[in-house]
Write a structure and sequence with these properties.
This protein is an alpha/beta fold and about 475 residues long. Helices cover about 40% and strands about 10% of the residues. Strands 1-6-5-2-7-12-9-13 form an 8-stranded mixed sheet, sandwiched between helices. Strands 3-4 form a two-stranded antiparallel sheet. A two-stranded antiparallel ribbon has the order 8-14. A hairpin with a 6-residue loop joins strand 3 (about 190) and strand 4 (about 200). It is globular, with a radius of gyration of 39 Å. The relative contact order is 0.13. It is found in: Golgi apparatus membrane. Belongs to the glycosyltransferase 31 family. This is Hexosyltransferase. Its main location: Golgi.
């Protein structure tokens, strides 16, 4: 039989406390459930602030540290770049071998504007109306290069406007045709009509003389005179024919074209003897048409110029025209061993004005005279394209415009020769190969695929 022992007084009090605490907890459960998470969050934030305060410096000291670090970075940049700038200027103070600091930079001292300085001149030069005259800058001894041009793209009797339809007939409807109003405007320079339309084109070669004529004897001169007599396309002038004298050669060309051709010609193209000129494409452009877009020429275009069916890509102007491959923001070369090294005493600015590649630039005949007059008052620069199409064009206030189909290099794809206007750095064997390909009218170059790859288009120039 179980016997129940009476509770002690201490046990009775504990039970009372527990019961009271249970009552209190039951009455305050809802409020504690709400406040405890908030209290924990406040405590956590206080703890974080205490920890941060242990490691963080005062705000003023942090700012001072940032300023010090910024100054240190600027100092490092100046330490690295200022010596390079100084050395660059020092490098550009090295003289050119044939253009020393004491040599006159007045172009009039070399071209004698008031005198007839030509040693050889074509018979009847510019006496007949000529739609396009092409002046090829060539070295005195480049007999092979000149003959290669005569037998390839320079054979303008065959390679004329009538060849345009043969080149691009399979692309009809994918380019703009010649404009009727321009055909009427230049009717005096054209013969035939339709597929037999032909424009008058004249090609001349500009050469100087050798500084070693006394050592060479008369052999080179006899050969040059025989060449001039046979082809009637040589202009030789009285200056030493070197690379660093190309500016003199080009200004001489402007002098003779301005004097003899201003009233009988419409357009002028200057190019080098390693340039391939697609004459039919150039004539079509001058007559207001556009050249069809090919897969192998797509890389030459930007997002505006590749729209060859749009009128804004055709030629409307008849004067003030200057087109070619445009360069912008080009800095003078300070490396003395470079072909394009520019001494500081010849050009002091940090960058050249925008200019067109000397590989081939086109202008209307009125621009020739304006450039020539500007050259007479512009300090000479031995880089002829920078001088003629940059400095002189700036002085004459002539706007230069980029044309996608004037290439300053040459493509590895022969279809690019069919679809462009100029290709540069073309050696004799490549020029013959390109000519055979271009003049084979059975070869049909393909257009870009159905899904045009816009990634291949160039970014537009911001000059």
């Amino acid at each position: 039989m179980d016997v129940k022992m009476p509770h002690s007084s201490h046990d009775i009090l504990d039970e009372d406390d527990q019961s009271s605490s249970l009552l209190n907890s039951s009455s305050s459960t809802g409020s504690e459930d709400d406040t405890q998470p908030k209290q924990r969050q406040r405590g956590y934030r206080k703890l974080q602030r205490r920890q941060r305060s242990r490691y963080h410096l005062p705000r003023s000291m942090r700012r001072c540290g940032c300023y010090t670090l910024s100054l240190f970075i600027v100092f490092l940049m100046l330490y690295n770049y200022l010596p390079n700038i100084y050395l660059d200027v020092q490098k550009r103070h090295m003289p050119l071998s044939d253009w020393s600091a004491n040599t006159s930079l007045d172009i009039k001292d070399y071209i004698s504007p008031q005198q007839d300085t030509a040693l050889i001149m074509p018979r009847g030069f510019c006496t007949n109306k000529t739609f396009l005259i092409i002046a090829v800058s060539t070295n005195l001894n480049n007999f092979v290069e000149r003959q290669t041009i005569r037998e390839t793209w320079g054979n303008t009797t065959e390679f004329n406007y009538s060849a345009f339809g043969k080149l691009h007939g399979h692309m009809k409807g994918r380019y703009l045709p010649a404009k009727p109003d321009r055909l009427r405007l230049y009717a005096d320079y054209l013969t035939g009509e339709g597929d037999s339309l032909t424009a008058t084109v004249r090609i001349i070669f500009i050469v100087g003389r050798s500084s070693y004529e006394s050592h060479l004897g008369n052999e080179t001169l006899i050969r040059l005179n025989n060449e001039a007599e046979m082809y009637n396309d040589i202009i030789q002038d009285n200056f030493i024919d070197t690379y660093n004298n190309l500016t003199i050669k080009s200004v001489m060309a402007l002098k003779h074209i301005s004097r003899s051709c201003a009233k009988s010609c419409a357009y002028f193209l200057k190019c080098d003897d390693d340039t391939f000129v697609n004459v039919p494409n150039l004539l079509h452009y001058l007559l207001g048409g556009t050249v069809p877009l090919y897969n192998d020429t797509l890389d030459y275009y930007d997002r505006r110029s590749f729209l060859v069916m749009m009128p804004h890509n055709s030629l409307n102007a008849t004067t003030g025209i200057m087109r070619g491959h445009q360069f912008c923001n080009v800095m003078p070369v300070s490396e003395v061993s470079s072909k394009w090294y520019m001494p500081y005493y010849m050009y002091q600015a940090d960058a050249y004005p925008q200019y067109l590649s000397g590989a081939g630039y086109l202008m209307s005949i009125d621009v020739v005279d304006r450039l020539y007059e500007a050259a007479l008052n512009t300090s000479l620069l031995y880089l002829e394209d920078v001088y003629i199409t940059g400095l002189c064009a700036d002085r004459a206030n002539i706007k230069r415009q980029h044309h996608s189909l004037f290439s300053f290099a040459h493509s590895q794809h022969l279809c690019a020769f069919k679809g462009s206007i100029t290709q540069h750095q073309v050696k004799e064997e490549t020029m013959v190969e390109a000519w055979r390909y271009v003049s084979n009218y059975t070869i049909k170059c393909p257009p870009p695929g159905n899904y045009l790859n816009h990634m291949r288009l160039r970014n537009r120039m911001n000059c």
